[in-house]
Structures are given as structure tokens and as C-alpha cells.
Design brief:
This is Lysophosphatidylglycerol acyltransferase 1. One of its GO terms (molecular function) is acyltransferase activity. It holds the Pfam family Acyltransf_C. By secondary structure, the chain is of the alpha/beta class. It has one domain. Helix content is 53%, strand content 13%. The chain is built from eleven helices and eight strands. Strand 3, helix 5 and strand 4 form a beta-alpha-beta unit. The longest helix is centred in the N-terminal third of the chain and has 41 residues.
Length: 363
């Protein structure tokens, strides 16, 4: 009986905590997102007068919004340990980031672990499924200039044309540096069986922890954003053009992905998500479709090996020539998170009073 009561007490606490977290996040969204939109509406004259200053301010506020999402997980004890290359060294250079995709929590994890990477968060562009356009964060991403892509053969060719036009119109004009995409084109649990059947039919590697990537968006991004030299080869340009491809592998303990519901309700015990980085200079990345397909497949075969090693040992394998892999704990400043949240609620209160005053004056 005592054990039953103890279990009931723990369940009651989890439910109460979930309700409290959901309530906080609901109001957090209600004050932060409208404030972001209203500030940018107020700054439209600046956009005409000095576009770079406008997008600088927008980028700062965009980073703060992503920091709020990060704080939801941070408060619940969801942290990140990083492995592999230190990408902070190239935070001011242009890069394409390719990430394995297991669940909706992957986006939240990236929002958290990129917060301490210089100006990356405010200068990044996301490629995401068009469904995200209709979420609470969809309007923010639309204003920021992210690209929503529709999946499926019926839309594929048109979407790639739209992507190319989007990149040409917004990427450099808004001073974007990193572009993030999930080449698998869907969640692991949804695509694994189809990917394995395709691999078997075409004598490709059998993958369990990732799926075979799709080439389309990756190829368009590389061809559109890479600086071309006169001889047609791809070169590194300090002011324009992609200079790196960053291969990011996200691993969850016991292969249990975190989803957005977990971040919102916080019902899972404190969890450490592991993120592995590997950097490739753009000159090592082939541009032709067939060679790029082989290169991209090889990256996901390596991801499979990394994840298999992690799930067996609890750590990623060491780099070549080293006996042990070094990890580093990614940290967020609690005081900074409190300041960002305080600014959001203060802004919400201010805009509420401004709009109420205008309404009374007009009506």
C-alpha cells in the first residue's frame, strides 16, 4: 500500500509539474512571439533606410527566442555534451550543416547547442518541413527567412526550384552564414523501412540508426551558395560562398529520442543528449550529382558507425590517431536566460498597454 501511495505521489508531482510547465510556456509564447513581430513592425522604416542594421536586430531577437526554447529543456535538466571538432572556430564562416533526424527534439537540441557558437544562431537559415509553418514558431521562421519544404515526389522538382530562388533572394541579402538541413527528409522511425528496402534493391549499405539521405536540397544549396572560381572548381572565399560542410550527429541515451512534447512537459528525468561534429572544407566536397551522392551516402554510413559505437559504449569513437575521444559539456548562462525571459515578459506587458491605449483612442 505504501508503495502504491508513493507511486501515486510521484505521478501527481509529474502531472502538476507538466501543467505548470505548459502554462509557463503558453504565456511565454503569448508574450515573446507577438513582441518579436511588433518590434519588427515598428522597425520597418529602418529596414528601408539600413537593411543590414534591421536584420542584425532581427537576428538578435531571433537568437533570444531560440534561447527561450533552450531554457525550457535546460530547466528540466536536458543538457548537451559535445564531441568531435570544435565548430566555434568557424562560427563566422559560411557553412552547410547536415544533421541526422530522429524526432522533433532534434531541432530543440540544435537550438540549445548552437547558442554558444558566436553569431551562428542569429545568422542561420533553417530548412524544415512545411508543416512547421503552421506551428507557434512558424511565423517567426517565416519572417526570419527560413525555407519550408514540401516532401514527396509530386512536389520535389518545384520545391528545389523554389529553394534555389529563396537562397538567391534571402541568403546573402540577410547576411546568413550557416544553413541547416536534415538530408534524410523525415524522421528515422518513418523512413527506416523504406530506406532499407531501397538500399537492398540498389546494393547500398543496410542502415539501422540513420536512413539514406536524399540529394536534392543538398545539391541545390552547394551549387547555389558555393563560390565558383574561373576554372569552374569550387574555392574558398572569405566574403562569399560556403566554406565548410559540418556533419552533425545527434545521439540520445539508449536510442530513445527526445520529442517536443518532452521539452514542453518535462516528464522525462534529466537527460544528456550527445552531439558529434565533423567539419569538411568545401573543396573536399564534390559538386557533380553522382559523386556528391556517393559522398553523402558515405557520411551517413559514418553516422551509422558513430551511433552504433555510441549505443554500445556510451561514447563516440576517438579520432584517428587518438586513444580516447574528448567530450565537452555545453553550458548556458542561467542569468542570461533569466534576462532574456524577463525582457520577453516586460515587452509583452508593454505592448499590451500600448495596444490597449491605441484601442481606447480609436474606439
Amino acid at each position: 500500500m505504501a508503495q502504491l501511495m508513493d507511486g501515486a505521489g510521484k505521478l501527481s508531482w509529474v502531472l502538476l509539474k507538466s501543467v505548470m510547465r505548459f502554462t509557463f510556456m503558453f504565456f511565454n509564447n503569448c508574450v515573446a512571439i507577438p513582441s518579436y513581430c511588433l518590434y519588427l513592425l515598428l522597425l520597418q522604416p529602418l529596414r528601408i533606410w539600413d537593411s543590414s542594421a534591421f536584420w542584425h536586430i532581427e537576428g538578435v531577437m531571433f537568437k533570444w527566442l531560440l534561447a527561450m526554447v533552450s531554457s525550457w529543456g535546460w530547466i528540466a535538466g536536458y543538457t548537451v555534451t559535445e564531441w568531435g571538432d570544435d565548430v566555434r572556430d568557424i562560427s563566422e564562416e559560411e557553412a552547410m550543416v547536415i544533421v541526422n533526424h530522429q524526432s522533433t527534439g532534434d531541432v530543440c537540441t540544435l537550438m540549445m547547442c548552437l547558442q554558444d557558437k558566436g553569431t551562428v544562431v542569429r545568422k542561420m537559415m533553417w530548412l524544415m518541413d512545411h508543416v512547421f509553418k503552421y506551428t507557434n514558431f512558424g511565423l517567426v521562421s517565416l519572417i526570419h527567412g527560413d525555407f519550408f519544404i514540401r516532401q514527396g515526389k509530386a512536389h520535389r522538382d518545384k520545391q528545389l526550384i523554389y529553394l534555389k530562388e529563396h537562397l538567391e533572394k534571402y541568403y546573402h541579402s540577410r547576411d546568413r552564414k550557416w544553413i541547416v538541413l536534415f538530408p534524410e527528409g523525415g524522421f528515422l522511425r518513418k523512413r527506416r523501412e523504406t530506406s532499407q528496402l531501397f538500399a537492398k534493391k540498389n546494393s547500398l549499405p543496410h542502415l539501422t540508426h540513420v536512413t539514406l539521405p536524399r540529394l536534392g536540397a543538398t545539391h541545390v544549396i552547394l551549387k547555389t551558395l558555393s563560390a565558383q572560381q574561373e576554372n569552374g572548381s569550387v574555392g574558398i572565399n572569405k566574403s562569399k560562398g560556403l566554406q565548410w560542410v559540418i556533419d552533425v550527429t545527434i545521439a540520445y541515451p539508449k536510442a530513445r529520442p527526445m520529442d517536443i512534447q518532452t521539452w514542453i512537459f518535462g516528464y522525462r528525468p534529466p537527460t544528456v543528449t550527445h552531439v558529434h561534429y565533423r567539419m569538411y572544407p568545401i573543396k573536399e566536397v564534390p559538386m557533380e550529382a553522382e559523386a556528391l551522392t556517393d559522398w553523402l551516402y558515405q557520411r551517413f554510413v559514418e553516422k551509422e558507425e558513430l551511433l552504433a559505437h555510441f549505443y554500445n559504449t556510451g561514447s563516440f569513437p576517438p579520432p584517428d590517431g587518438q586513444k580516447e575521444a574528448a567530450s565537452r559539456q555545453m553550458t548556458l548562462d542561467p542569468m542570461w536566460l533569466c534576462m532574456v525571459q524577463s525582457f520577453a515578459f516586460a515587452s509583452g506587458y508593454m505592448w499590451y498597454n500600448v495596444l490597449q491605449y491605441l484601442y481606447c483612442c480609436l474606439f
